[in-house]
């Protein structure tokens, strides 16, 4: 059996390795890893996301390649949705998936409870 790097399983190659929701100030609001990573790797990934995504200008590309994966992110008002995907995955599809995920959250929490103020985020 050959050695595999974290996130190199067949399942991980077809989907998201992780998702991170982060404020404009760099505070992590939610992080979920769908592949197995050591705690030190998770901390490094979160540190890379904060240091690479936050300083970027709004007009810059929403894709950052980082080793065996890439960050695909989208900003809604003051909240960044950052997804880690394999290098070979189509970035435009991931951007659309992020938007559909945000719309699903908005639809689910639209009944008076606002998840990170998504009502305002989506409509501004």
Rg (C-alpha, Å): 15 Å
Which band does the percent of strand residues land in?
25-35%
Report, as a whole number of angstroms, the end-to-end distance: 51 Å
Q: If strands are numbered along the chain, what order do they take across the biggest sheet? A: 2-1-5-4-3
Spans with pLDDT under 50 lasting ≥5 residues? none
The helix content, as a percent range, equals 25-40%
Number of domains: 1
* CATH first level: Alpha Beta
Round the mean pLDDT to the nearest integer and report it: 81
**How many strands, what sense, and barrel or not for the largest sheet?**
5 strands, antiparallel
Task: Give your account of this protein's structure.
- With 124 residues, the chain is an alpha+beta fold.
- It has one domain: Beta-Lactamase.
- The chain contains four helices and five strands; from the N terminus they run αββαβββαα.
- The protein is globular and about 35 Å long.
Question: Secondary-structure blueprint of this entry?
Answer:
Elements lengths: L9 H4 L4 E6 L4 E6 L5 H15 L9 E4 L2 E8 L2 E8 L4 H18 L9 H5 L2
Antiparallel strand pairs: 1-2, 1-5, 3-4, 4-5
Task: Give the tags.
globular; 4 helices; alpha+beta
């Amino acid at each position: 059996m050959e050695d595999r790097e974290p996130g190199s399983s067949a399942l991980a190659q077809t989907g998201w390795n992780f998702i991170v929701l982060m404020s404009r100030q760099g505070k992590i609001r939610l992080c979920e890893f769908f592949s197995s990573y050591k705690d030190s790797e998770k901390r490094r990934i979160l540190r890379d996301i904060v240091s690479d995504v936050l300083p970027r200008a709004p007009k810059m590309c929403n894709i950052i390649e980082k080793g065996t994966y890439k960050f695909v992110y989208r900003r809604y008002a003051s909240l960044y949705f950052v997804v880690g995907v394999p290098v070979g995955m189509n970035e435009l599809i991931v951007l659309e998936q992020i938007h559909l995920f945000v719309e699903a959250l908005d639809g689910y929490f639209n009944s008076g409870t606002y998840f990170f103020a998504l009502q305002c985020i989506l409509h501004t």
